[in-house]
């Protein structure tokens, strides 16, 4: 059996976490890890105790704010960072694995929390149809390492029948 790299394990977990999202527009997952240990996980959606957009407004999702963004959504990376903070876990020096590269507001939070590296699967700019990944540009400008995920998920071998 081929042993997967931790980058592959953490990104595959982020992809699976994205499936938990209640958002109508996009499903995004995030994993915060230090070395080989998971610190926190998150996916995008409304704050706990509010409405699940896909259940409350299944056709169109929650109302939009003045910029056209979801009025209830907390981004996956925000959820992962907030959960770590809520539980007293330091994210300083950690790596964030996320299925969609961070938007500019999330990038500012990532930098402020001293996360050292971001590994992303898909481009936020491509998803939004804009010309630049502002979040990635911000992170790169201020010394946070960014890396587009280029690995692959490896399926474990099935056990042999006795």
Automatic annotation (TrEMBL):
It holds the Pfam family dCMP_cyt_deam_1. PROSITE patterns: CYT_DCMP_DEAMINASES_1 (PS00903), CYT_DCMP_DEAMINASES_2 (PS51747). Keywords: Hydrolase, Metal-binding, Zinc. The keyword Hydrolase applies. The keyword Lyase does not apply. Residues 5-145 form the CMP/dCMP-type deaminase domain. Gene3D superfamilies: Cytidine Deaminase, domain 2 (3.40.140.10). InterPro entries: APOBEC/CMP_deaminase_Zn-bd, CMP_dCMP_dom, Cytidine_deaminase-like, dCMP_deaminase-rel, Deoxycytidylate_deaminase_dom. Belongs to the cytidine and deoxycytidylate deaminase family. PANTHER family: DEOXYCYTIDYLATE DEAMINASE, DEOXYCYTIDYLATE DEAMINASE-RELATED. This is dCMP deaminase family protein. It comes from Rhodocytophaga aerolata.
């Amino acid at each position: 059996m081929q042993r997967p790299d931790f980058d592959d394990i953490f990104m595959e977990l982020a992809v699976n976490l994205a499936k938990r999202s209640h958002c109508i527009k996009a499903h995004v997952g995030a994993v915060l890890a230090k070395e080989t240990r998971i610190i926190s996980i998150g996916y995008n959606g409304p704050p706990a105790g509010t409405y699940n957009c896909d259940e409350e407004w299944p056709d169109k999702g929650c109302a939009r704010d003045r910029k056209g963004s979801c009025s209830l959504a907390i981004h996956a990376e925000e959820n992962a960072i907030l959960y770590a903070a809520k539980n007293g876990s330091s994210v300083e020096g950690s790596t964030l694995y996320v299925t969609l590269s961070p938007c500019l507001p999330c990038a500012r939070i990532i930098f402020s929390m001293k996360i050292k590296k971001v590994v992303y699967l898909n481009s936020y700019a491509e998803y939004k149809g804009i010309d630049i990944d502002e979040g990635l540009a911000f992170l790169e400008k201020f010394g946070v390492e960014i890396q587009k995920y280029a690995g692959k998920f490896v399926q474990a071998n099935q056990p042999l029948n006795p």
